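Contributing new records

If you add data, match the layout below exactly. Sequence lines come first and carry their own label; structure lines follow with theirs. Keep one chain per record. Anything else will be rejected by the validation script.
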Amino acid sequence: MAARLALYNLLLALCSPLLGVWLLWRGVVRGKGLGCFRHRLGLVPRLPQGGGPRVWLHAVSAGEMSAAGPVLEALLRELPEARVVVSTVTPAGMTMAEKTCGRAHALFYLPFDGPGCMMRALRRVRPDLVVVAEKEMWPNFLGLAVLMGVRVQAVNGRVSDRMVSRARWAPGFVRWLYRLPDLLCVQSEQDARRLVEIGVPATRILVAGNTKADNLAERDAESEARLAGDLGLEGPGIWLVAGSTHPGEEEIILEAFLAIRKEIPEVRLLLAPRHLDRVASVSAAVAERGISAVRRSEATGSAGEGVVILDTMGELRAAYAFGTAGFVGGTLVPIGGHNLLEPVAAGRAVLFGPHTENCSDVSDLVREWQVGFQVQGAGELAEEFLRIARDPERQRRIASKGRELIVAQRGAAQRCADAARALLGLERHP
């Protein structure tokens, strides 16, 4: 372990000038801050001595943090004496952590994955268990934790097509990296098979399910009502809600929207770019097509007659609730897709493109339950939306099946918490 980490850190040192330039470009040009710099250097909050087990829960950004919230709650049910700290990488992740992980004993930004920064943080927290969400496999973070005798667990794990291809050209490194956790709780049988193919022992893999389903089990009626009121929605309308969109997708969605509007003139579109720093460019793309647009932050009781651009955090789920159907981005361009279950949990059909490498199991699931529909471009997106919008009975069937699907997927967070308790060798709390 020490030898492999030494080799990794040697390569990291050689690449450090390039990493420094990239961080500077990211901060100055793209305006993406690092969060608290003290945290990045490993000066994270200390946990006091004594008490129950110490758990460090980490998720990279807002989407992953929303899925980590149910895991935190399940951990505290199973380990009521535990002291849990939560880390994230992005400001959006911190905003979501403040919203969903309020019971954590401390929130902080993940230190840089250099040996000094990470060892400093591990010594301040001194965790008994590190829990990482999805694909947050940082070599120094996990490797140093293992050397310190800390148990490591991954939750909500996914093994994408991209990771499988990386394993082909760096099999030794990938195999070593994925063998660091004592247990990998993955979303699907497909993920488990891929881990075995990479070289992870089957005894270290648990198919626990998708914790995002636990987070989606209950709708947030208050947020839905607030958003509808701010947009001046007094009753049901015909809306295409397109969330988590990326460059190249908005143009396709706008083309589909214009085609739909020829058939249903009163149709509305809500666009929610995945990254809020793109709101200005998305607004420009709408204006280029002669369509009026209003930003959600500027809508005070009226959303006008054109396109609404969602430029706020944490309201996409509420937006899906008043959509006739929801489109999930990262699928019409080669990103790999985002959370296809969000529109389904709101009782709406989910539309998505062919690029579902990061969520192939969920795309299969929603199609199997007949609540999700894959489209190839603007024409198919418009046609599928029109079929749904013109068939109220089909909308009711989709809403009913969607609720059944979400209920069937619940329980992943509890299974992860049960596994964490077993890793720590603790008896179940009465």
